[in-house]
Write a structure and sequence with these properties.
It contains 19 helices and 21 strands. Among the domains are: 158 residues, 3-Layer(bba) Sandwich (FAD/NAD(P)-binding domain); 118 residues, no CATH class. The chain starts with a strand and ends with a helix. Helix 1 runs parallel beside helix 18 and helix 8 runs antiparallel to helix 9. The chain has 529 residues and is α/β, with parallel strands linked by helices. Strand 10 and strand 11 form a beta hairpin.
Length: 529
């Protein structure tokens, strides 16, 4: 009988399991899929000579995460690689906003859009330098972040206090208009905000766009050498080397609850796996409470709140094996790992508005990844392993384009949507389609089948909007990994601080379980090492 059972071997489940074994617990991880990793996986499924990341690909939050830093995954062979430039947002005119590796180079580039914008970027980065480390620490610790929160408050005062806090609450369109005279800085902020499900006019989208832009400036958008799978392999190897057990192809059907306490799990094959101390669930909140626990063990208020739970946007992704580099009209985009493909901030607003109305966008914003540019090991020299994803409504009511896409995602609809994304890229890179040697389509239903936490392709396990963050995540009054069932902990991105590959939800759940049993995880680990 292990001390703890972890449901799910995504990055959060694996982080939680690693912290528990560090504290001396015996741990068994059960994963429904035939391989671990959740949304951190890669393969050669598009072309045998090309490595393609199935889900997530660039990892600024992992690079900044104190949780992952403490695991020392470099000792397990994990290495990071960077593209020459972090991110680019080209325009059809050939101009391009570029987030460079060096701050001064970013500032100089933005100064070409408007001279004053070079200093505006410097000022923005100086504020980040004052508060960024404490902000990251506060984000990646349980809510409320007492110690890091006090340090953050002091840093905020030094960085402008209420004025900075006001900026972070602004819609990203307004933040860009207030801070930058030209389009360059506005494009970087707004495109980064749409890495989540935050429209340019959404309250708080300015803060998210600022956070992702500043993380890119300070840490880059790195990728694991050899593919996303290398990050998962490092976590798995570390876990097994320290005595943890991982079993793939083992679907958990329910959490065993006795007297209001989680005592283990039952698998789909009928096996009961008991847990002496804790069950940690790297699952979505609706799946944990409705499917695995059951309403009879939960308070009625939680069940009512779950009816208001909001998923983030659906996602549609295409992977390509390209015979050459992407022929961007704006040559500066060629050196960027990540490229935002949309016709300015207005194009982003139009795209988000169509999603809000339930429409499939006719000119979809594409977040485009140039993986060989970021890591030359991904495909043969002179070629490019590439992908793009776009967002869609969770419930489609109509198609703003000509293809009558309904969300059934049969073969016709999948091909039509993939063609639409390629047409959008072609507008900014004429000749792109002629360089496609092979492609793979991952529709929302496909993504969910490959990883059940990606509900219809929702990559953040719930909206990033302010009404479902911090103490409102996943439902009002929570914000922590503890659940109404004793010894059961929510260890997924459905819990604070939410989506992204950084390990914080898993770490928070592990620490909560250890403290429940009188153990301080960091102290205990120090004693063991």
């Amino acid at each position: 009988m292990p001390d703890a059972v972890v449901i799910g071997a995504g990055p959060n489940g694996l982080v939680a399991a690693n912290l528990l074994v560090d504290a001396g617990w015996s741990v068994e991880v059960l994963e429904a899929q035939q391989e671990p990793g959740g949304a951190v996986r890669s393969d050669r499924g598009v072309h045998p000579d090309y490595v393609s990341d199935l889900f997530s690909a660039f990892y600024p939050l992992a690079a900044a995460s104190p949780v992952l830093a403490r695991l020392d995954l470099a000792a397990e062979g994990l290495r990071w690689s960077h593209a020459p430039s972090v991110l680019a947002h080209p325009l059809r005119t050939g101009r391009c906003a570029v987030l460079e590796r060096r701050m001064e180079e970013t500032a100089a580039g933005l100064g070409e859009f408007a001279a004053a914008d070079a200093d505006a970027w410097r000022d923005m980065y100086e504020a980040w330098s004052r508060v960024g480390p404490d902000l990251v620490q506060a984000l990646f610790t349980p809510f409320p972040p007492v110690r890091s929160g006090l340090r953050l408050a002091a840093g905020l005062r030094a960085a402008g206090g209420l004025r900075l806090a006001r900026n972070l609450a602004l819609p990203v369109r307004r933040l860009g208009e207030e801070e930058f005279a030209g389009d360059g800085g506005r494009l970087l902020l707004a495109g980064n905000a749409l890495h989540a499900d935050l429209a340019p006019e959404a309250v708080g989208s300015g803060g998210f766009g600022w956070l992702m832009s500043m993380l890119g400036q300070s840490h880059g958008f790195p990728v694991p050498v050899g593919g996303a799978r290398a990050l998962t392999e490092a976590l798995v190897n570390r876990l097994r080397r320290r005595g943890g057990v991982l079993r793939c192809g083992e679907r958990v059907a329910s959490v065993a609850v006795r007297g209001g306490t989680a005592v283990g799990v039952r698998t789909a094959s009928g096996e009961t796996v008991s847990a002496r101390r804790a069950v940690l669930a790297d699952t979505s909140a609706p799946a944990l409470y409705r499917d695995l626990v059951g309403e009879e063990h939960l308070p009625s208020r939680l069940l009512r709140d779950l009816e208001r739970f909001q998923w983030d946007f659906a996602t549609f992704k295409v992977d390509w094996a390209l015979t050459g580099s992407v022929p961007w009209t704006a040559p500066q985009a060629a050196g960027a790992g990540t490229v935002h493909v949309a016709d300015g901030v207005d194009g982003l607003t139009r795209f988000a508005s169509q999603i809000a109305m339930g429409q499939v966008p006719d000119e979809p914003f594409a977040l485009f990844g140039q993986m060989t540019t970021a890591d030359p090991s991904r495909s043969p020299a002179g070629t490019e392993s590439a992908w793009a994803y776009t967002h869609l409504p969770q419930r489609i009511t109509s198609d703003a384009g000509p293809d009558r896409i309904t969300g059934r995602w049969d073969a016709r609809e999948q091909e039509a949507m993939a063609d639409r994304i390629e047409a959008q890229v072609e507008r900014f890179a004429p000749g792109f389609r002629a360089r496609i040697a092979a492609r793979r389509i991952l529709a929302p239903t496909t993504l969910q089948a490959m990883n059940e936490n990606l509900h219809n392709g929702a990559v953040n396990n719930g909206t990033t909007a302010m009404h479902q963050q911090a103490i409102f995540r996943p439902t009002p009054g929570t914000g922590r990994p503890e659940t109404p069932v004793k010894n059961l902990y929510l260890a997924s991105a459905a819990a604070h601080p939410g989506g992204g590959v950084h390990g914080a939800p898993g770490a928070n759940a592990a620490r909560a379980a250890l403290r429940r049993h009188g153990l301080h995880p960091l102290l205990h680990r120090a004693q063991r090492t």
